[in-house]
Amino acid sequence: MISFLHNLFVPHPHNNHRSKLLHNSSLLIAVFSLLSVSLIFITIHRSHPNVLGVSYSISADDLLKITNSDRQQNGLPPLSLNNELTSAAQGKAANMFQNDYWAHFAPDGTSPWDFIKGAGYNYSYAGENLAKGFTSSSDIVQAWMNSPSHRENMLSNKYKDVGFAIQEGNLLGEDTVLVVEEFGAPVTPVIVDNNAAQVQAANVDPLAETPSAGSSANPTPSVKPRPTPIPAKVILGDANKLVVVTKKPSQSFFEKASINLKPEFDFSNQTRVLAIGILAVFAVALLLDFIVTEKKKIPRLVGHNLDHIMLISFAIIILILQAKGGIL
Amino acid sequence: MKNKFFRHHPYYVLEALYLVIGFCAIFIFSYSATLQLMVLILVLICYVGLGFLHHRIHHDLKPKIVLEYVLISLLVLGAFLLINSTRL
User: Considering only alpha carbons, which residue of chain B is nearest residue A133?
Assistant: First the structure.
């Protein structure tokens, strides 16, 4: 066994002063095996996603519980699940799938606030977090908490309500589960005279000068939003922007608030360990080969080990750190 | 070892540069496995190309060396495909 490993990893006269593992024939076997298994997995996953795939367990309840738990740990009051914000989130998610984009703003300029106000939520503050490709509620909240701008939304004391959408579909050519989280704080209504309502509504919506703002921000004649001491502010996951509302999502967006997918086989953890393990073994072989031949000053006609070590290290780091999903 | 490194260091610096750029691009495109795959393929093409150029400049370019660079690239590609087989 020891001599086998010695032959595999350490260059010596019997393996032509090159670790056996680094011979082109050994590399060819490893490459062929990796590519074959990958192609088989990709083919099965595409044709039978319920047989071979990734397990998902995401629910609005869990997202809310974990978010509120994080807020409580930071001395903040819990958020309430709001029907209008849930509707807005579902409208946004459906719009993203329909128009195939991964952004806070749709290609046609539709903003998150369009969905929030369109769903009937009159906000003084609003924000949006997006996530896709994650497999569990805790991973999503953790990823948001690790990002300063998303964390700002999660731990803002300005928000009172939250709504989640969890939808499955194909986005940018990839089957995925998309999670939209809309935050909001409602405008508190007070009774005033009709003439004052128009003026105060303009205080609440900072873009009231936009032609469409007047109609969308106009409440019933006897009610006006309470004047806010500072201008309304909205926060996106990674950008601040103030906009007005023009659109209302349809009722069909009220869909399920959780996704639980369990394919018959989920090898995602095993394949990760296997692929990184194979690369690590080759990195060790390259390093040993490099050290021994440099020490013994053995001249050989082979590629530069340092090149290979750099590339494989780059790949290992990427594959270890590669997030399971993306946030925005 | 030191002399050898310094003799080749511009080459290693260049390699480190495109690896870092590739690393950043892969994280920027973390939302799409397809885009990540395209970036990786680009990095691997640079790797083989630069390896080819380097050995040619040092007059030790042989078919088996080119094959070695291609195989190491394919090994990395295979590992990426295996991990992302359910995202592609």
Answer: B31
> Which residues between 19 and 58 in chain B have a beta carbon less than 8 angstroms from any beta carbon of chain A?
19, 22-23, 26-27, 30-36, 43, 47, 51, 54-55
Q: Tokens at residue A107, please?
A: 């290609």
Dump pLDDT digits (tens) for A285-320: 999 988 888 888 777 767 788 889 999 999 999 988
Sign of the torsion angle spanned by Cα atoms A54, A60, A65, A69: positive
Three-state SS annotation for B41-88: HHHHHHHHHHHHHHHHHCCCCCHHHHHHHHHHHHHHHHHHHHHCCCCC
pLDDT in tens, A35-75: 999 999 888 888 877 776 677 788 888 999 999 999 999 99
The predicted model scores a pTM of 0.67
**A295, A297, A298, A303 alpha-carbon torsion, rounded to 10°:** 80
ipTM for the predicted complex comes to 0.91
- Asked if B6 is an interface residue toward chain A (Cβ–Cβ < 8 A), one would say no
B-chain residues within 8 Å CB-CB of A308? 72
Choose the mutation target among A47, A308, A313 for the interface with B, i.e. most B CBs under 10 Å. Answer: A308
